[in-house]
Amino acid sequence: MRWRHLVVIVLGPASLALVGGDPVPANAQRARTPYRVGVVNDAKAGNHPTMQGLKAGLRDLGLEEGRDVVYDVALTDGDPEQIAAAARALVQSRPDVMFTSGEAATLAAKTATPTIPIVFTLVGDPIAAGIVRSLAHPTGNLTGVSSLTTELVVKRLETLKTLVPALRRVWTVSHGPDPSSGVVMKKAVDGASRFGIEVVPRSVRTRGELDQVLAGIRTDDALLVPDVAALDLSAVLLEASLARRIPAMFSAELWVSHGGLVSYGADYRAQGAQAARLVAKVLRGARPSDIPVESADRVVLAVNLKTAASFGLATPRRVLFSADVIRR
């Protein structure tokens, strides 16, 4: 382990840092080489919400960008091949820690290195995805924040049924290679009966297969939208929902801000801020295997009243009172 991993930042009026146990002035501590964080996700730009949260979280912990930490951000445009290549390239540059968002990026980073610490976000089910074997005791070089996709799926169905009381059928569409989609689909199917709903699970690998699924959806059906970037699934399903007035439940408030009807899921930016604490522990020398995987701290229910009205839906008070974000 390199010497700089033994640096521990202590915030206080004395403005001292501990280096190897001896107090030194803060200006001396800042003279060291900044930590390097390699970032890989499926974003089309560098301002991904989890990245914004990470920077804010590390800043709150006293790690200023440029002075204490620098970020190597790989833009991959959501392309699986680019994600894998970006992960390999970042490993070659030997960052102090890698920060990933999404299952594809996390698995690519895991494949690229068994040694460089990896802190992940936006992973719906880390065990089902094959990222860690245990949440409490992750093995290897990974830890992070779970976005609770499998745990929240039944609540998503319940909210859809509350918004659309006459609802009888919900389509859940997933990307075939997504390793945790099977668990999500099973939980959706198992939980749907209590709401008098039939769940229609469909797995797609190509845009042509997705178009075939969309052709079979009726206007009195609804959609359970996955949290994956492959095939631009969320964007395509949002477009279909708005064009045909098909109620759709999304996994993140981002899509409600773009006109989606409703979402219930872990907040992207908050996951980045939460993961910042784990990144800081790693930079201080902790091993990922000693840091339990955390569940997302902030889960948000968002509803778009304008979209609801255009669909002819009256938003129940139960949903309004529970909503964290209301778009008008």
Characterization of the model:
This protein has helices at residues 26-29, 49-60, 80-92, 103-112, 149-163, 181-192, 207-215, 233-244, 253-257, 268-283, 305-310, 317-322; strands at residues 7-9, 16-19, 22-25, 35-40, 69-74, 97-101, 118-123, 142-146, 169-175, 198-204, 222-224, 248-250, 262-266, 294-295, 299-304, 325-327. The chain has 328 residues and is an alpha/beta fold. The strands form three sheets. The protein has a seven-stranded mixed beta sheet, with helices on both faces. Strand 11 (222-224), helix 8 and strand 12 (248-250) form a beta-alpha-beta unit. Helix 3 packs across helix 4 and helix 5 crosses helix 6 (181-192).
In short:
The chain is an alpha/beta fold and 328 residues long. It has twelve helices and 16 strands.
